[in-house]
Design brief:
UDP-N-acetylglucosamine 2-epimerase activity; six-stranded parallel β-sheet; Glucosamine (UDP-N-acetyl)-2-epimerase/N-acetylmannosamine kinase; disordered C terminus; ROK; single chain; alpha/beta; hydrolase activity, hydrolyzing O-glycosyl compounds
Length: 707
């Protein structure tokens, strides 16, 4: 008991409603009774147990030496649909007083009968834990729905087959609260066949009957199709009369339609026919012996498809009541029949055969597993059961926390090579990204930007992202107040005096912010990256070209002509190579990706690039990485070029994007770019986060200098 955290005995209430469920519950009750140091047992009897027409089967509970704590008369006679509903209602009225008095820790409920539904409903509403036996199985009639309804009310589940276990998991029940134990009745069945059975056969069928030379018939109404099930019962009796073998017929259960079935029996004179013995009830121990040694069992009882398989006795399963049940090879199904002929043929096929014993429903060790499971129940755990639903997208758009989390921007990154659009969250996380090559003409480029932004905005709705605005990061000199690209280098053609804000704002009906890609990088580092909390720092970005951004006293510096941080176009050598801006000797002309590619191609054309251990595939363009690789392998020409690059451009090895950060003293704040020294080099925030930062800066600080 220490294992489950309980410091007292577990008070278990077992409620039994009829002869069938008692056959499954009795083995558990015997097991509980043998361990009084762990359990207290209360027995509640209700339903057809207490009706004389159905054998007063409560007596067998007393004969098994169980003290019946409470007897509840809950059956409203009528044996029709309304009577079943009224019986459930009557049970619901009476059960609360009993449960209040007993105060069980857990109630054990079996199966799929309407009485069991009343028990489970009462216990669930009174906060009593429920252990459901035989959940997860599939069959026909209303029992299927009732069984699954009880499953949803129950806190713990004992199932009999692997398929039933999987059904329970599929129904979102917690796997940790499911026990695959097998059917408790199998604990008796698998040890019962060697007993003295001939005396039992003679007692119920007559002295002249031999083993394997009689039939056991047990057929119940199908509550979802009563008329058809009565017709099927009529045909069954006709076939049995024609087959002319001694037959033990058990009366049907108390479901709607049973009264009509009894009338059919009496109309055909079954109770007085010399070949038939009609009985209301057979004790389970004796019933086991009768079906184990029968030539055949016929009907639609779950006993036929479940328990009888343990003996290999042939079974004819009639109609749809057990459709979906797992069965052994001993079961022959007759789904429908218009005449007795089909049933008669099935009798000729099955009678007298012996099939292999089936253990689909158990191995004879269910009760020890169930007792161990009961001992493991922790009464300190929360009573409210949890369902293990598969992951689904929750509709939480009206949740304030979710709204704050899903505020987003459209980020547009327009570089010398690629055009990228993304949905970026306020935390700087890229939700979805789209990439295309940057077209060469203005017309194609602006149309592609609009198309990609419209597609991204539509996708944002599906992703439940709320777009606040659009941030555009572009190469060139940009007037952020007007949203106009004033001038661009040759890296982006036809990109001078371009109004980017107006067409995007008119198309998307969103505010649009535009800035130079280096400035966007500085904003991104301030908000998401290495510049968080720093008052002053410079960002340097390298790619096809070179750019940068300056943060001074937490503010982005644009300069009077919007080129304060055009770091790539600082001239370091008056007689240097041509730059894409039209000048000579700019850092970009030495250290950009395009400059390194130019130098690599020049060496390659002169057959001076490749050294031992290096090759360039024919379909691959020569680029900066080949130049760096050659230098690493000892190519003196490549090393000289890179030495010049580092000297003039202070570019980090392998031409990766870098960030130059510094925290300055009051005196050093007066210094300008040429005097800045870098103390740290760290990875920059992504270009899409950079462009997103423009939109976020505009949305959060509308009076910011970039406007």
């Amino acid at each position: 008991m220490e294992k489950n955290g309980n410091n007292r005995k577990l008070r278990v209430c077992v409620a039994t409603c009829n002869r069938a469920d008692y056959s499954k519950l009795a083995p558990i009750m015997f097991g509980i009774k043998t361990e009084p140091e762990f359990f207290e047992l209360d027995v509640v009897v209700l339903g057809s147990h207490l009706i004389d027409d159905y054998g007063n089967t409560y007596r067998m509970i007393e004969q098994d030496d169980f003290d019946i704590n409470t007897r509840l008369h809950t059956i409203v006679r009528g044996e029709d649909e309304a009577a079943m509903v009224e019986s459930v209602g009557l049970a619901l009225v009476k059960l609360p007083d009993v449960l209040n008095r007993l105060k069980p820790d857990i109630m054990i409920v079996h199966g799929d009968r309407f009485d069991a539904l009343a028990l489970a409903t009462s216990a669930a509403l009174m906060n009593i834990r429920i252990l459901h036996i035989e959940g997860g199985e599939v069959s026909g009639t209303i029992d299927d729905s009732i069984r699954h309804a009880i499953t949803k009310l129950a806190h713990y589940h004992v199932c009999c087959t692997r398929s039933a276990e999987q059904h329970l998991i599929s129904m979102c029940e917690d796997h940790d609260r499911i026990l695959l134990a097998g059917c408790p009745s199998y604990d008796k069945l698998l040890s019962a066949k060697n007993k003295d059975y001939m005396s039992i056969i003679r007692m119920w069928l007559g002295d002249d009957v031999k083993s394997k030379d009689y039939i056991v018939a047990l057929q119940h109404p199908v509550t979802t199709d009563i008329k058809h099930s009565i017709k099927m019962f009529e045909l069954t009796l006709d076939a049995l009369i024609s087959f002319n073998k001694r037959t033990l017929v058990l009366f049907p259960n108390i479901d709607a339609g049973s009264k009509e079935m009894v009338r059919v029996m009496r109309k055909k004179g079954i109770e007085h026919h010399p070949n038939f013995r009609a009985v209301k009830h057979v004790p389970f121990d004796q019933f086991i012996q009768l079906v184990a040694h029968a030539g055949c069992m016929i009907g639609n009882s779950s006993c036929g498809v479940r328990e009888v398989g343990a003996f290999g006795t042939p079974v004819i399963n009639l109609g749809t009541r057990q459709i979906g049940r797992e069965t052994g090879e001993n079961v022959l199904h007759v789904r429908d029949a218009d005449t007795q002929d089909k049933i008669l043929q099935a009798l000729h096929l099955q009678f007298g055969k012996q099939y292999p014993c089936s253990k689909i429903y158990g191995d004879g060790n269910a009760v020890p597993r169930i007792l161990k499971f009961l001992k493991s129940i922790d009464l300190q755990e929360p009573l409210q059961k949890k369902f293990c639903f598969p992951p689904v997208k929750e509709n939480i758009s009206q949740d304030i926390d979710h709204i704050l989390e899903t505020l987003s921007a459209l980020a547009v990154d327009l570089g010398g090579t690629n055009l990228r659009v993304a949905i970026v969250s306020m935390k700087g996380e890229i939700v979805k990204k789209y990439t295309q090559f940057n077209p060469k003409t203005y017309e194609e480029r602006i149309n592609l930007i609009l198309q990609m932004c419209v597609e991204a905005a539509a996708e944002a709705v599906k992703l439940n992202c709320r777009i606040l605005g659009v941030g555009i990061s572009t190469g060139g000199r940009v007037n952020p107040r007007e949203g106009i690209v004033l001038h661009s280098t040759k890296l982006i053609q036809e990109w001078n005096s371009v109004d980017l804000r107006t067409p995007l704002s008119d198309t998307l009906h969103l505010p649009v912010w535009v800035d130079n890609d280096g400035n966007c990088a500085a904003l991104a580092e301030r908000k998401f990256g290495q510049g968080k909390g720093l008052e002053n720092f410079v960002t340097l970005i390298t790619g096809t070209g070179i750019g940068g951004g300056i943060i001074h006293q937490h503010e982005l510096i644009h300069g009077s002509s919007f080129c304060a941080a055009e770091l790539g176009h600082l001239v370091v050598s008056l007689d240097g190579p041509d730059c894409s801006c039209g000048s000579h000797g700019c850092i970009e002309a030495y250290a950009s990706g395009m400059a390194l590619q130019r130098e690599a191609k020049k060496l390659h054309d002169e057959d001076l690039l490749l050294v031992e251990g290096m090759s360039v595939p024919k379909d691959e363009a020569v680029g900066a990485l080949h130049l760096i690789q050659a230098a690493k392998l000892g190519n003196a020409k490549a090393q000289s070029i890179l030495r010049t690059v580092v000297t003039n451009g202070r570019l980090a090895e392998e031409s990766q994007r870098t960030v130059f950060l510094y925290e300055s003293s009051a005196e050093e704040k007066k210094k300008v770019w040429p005097g800045i020294t870098h103390s740290e080099q760290r990875p920059a925030a992504s270009s899409l986060r950079q462009s997103c930062s423009v939109a976020q800066a505009g949305a959060q600080w509308p009076n910011h200098g970039l406007l």
